[in-house]
Amino acid sequence: MGKLDGKVACITGGTRSIGRAMAEAFLAEGANVVVNGRDAEKGATAIAEMGGGDNIAFYGGDASKQATCEGIVDFTVEKYGQLDICCLNSGGVAQTAPVAQMSDEEWALEIDWNLNHVFWGMRRALQHMIPRETGRVLVTSSVEGKLGKPGIPGYAATKHAVNGLVKAAAQEVGTLGITVNSILPGLIETDIVRDTGPDSALAMGLDGYDSLIEMFSSESAIKRPNKVEEVAAVALFLASDAARNMTGVMFPVDGGTMPY
Fold it and tell me: Which residues contact 169 (CB under 8 A, 6 or more apart)?
């Protein structure tokens, strides 16, 4: 018996990095999983590599768009008959610029990708979960949802907002057997971070990517970047029956970065 036998999950941004680790963990515990990504070819490759057979499917689309966020939920229900776990995982540092230099367009992109994506997906997921009076909504936030770094104000602001949305939603559905939680990872050296890290480092006043990794590592108790598997393990716990009375909580997976 797996911890998620008979459960159905969807994961935005689920073909790589944290999302893929979540998908693999859920599959290993018996769930049917739908993963989302922008690139259909890469998505097909990812689900083939995960080896889930008929227990995993791909839904293509940009998670900064409302149609994608709502569409993956509806597709999951159509494909597997229900939705038990919705992981709103997509997001990241879309733009690096000080507040005084950030354009309206750059700000709007951060809002759509990191905040609206969560609202759109959560709203549709809850519309399916509320009649069944069961479900788990998991949001990938960030330590920057409690802290803040110069040069990434859009990311910090949206992650703070996401955490507030999680707390409010948890209060609304707490008596219906539905939990809503967020996971706050510290720095993880993913391909996404490697792509955006150099620009982020410059925006923070650092001299390069290595300095970025060194700064985030030094702020933690473990003195190293975190791992996607460590985040996925927390997601698996929160998706399971063992966490049925835990809701509206921000779970750090940051190696002791946050002081409280």
Answer: 122, 126, 137, 180
**pLDDT category, 148, cuts 50, 70, 90?**
confident
The structure's pTM equals 0.92
Domains of the chain: 8-188+227-252 (3.40.50.720)
Residues in the chain: 260
* Range list of H helices, 206-251: 209-218, 228-239
CA distance 75 to 59: 8
Query: Is 80 designated active site?
Result: no
Question: 197-239 pLDDT, tens per residue?
Answer: 677 666 667 777 777 778 777 788 888 888 999 999 999 999 9
Q: Which of 80, 155, 209, 260 is catalytic?
A: 155
- Cβ burial of 5 (10 Å; 0-12, 13-18, 19+) is exposed
d(CA 225, CA 217): 6
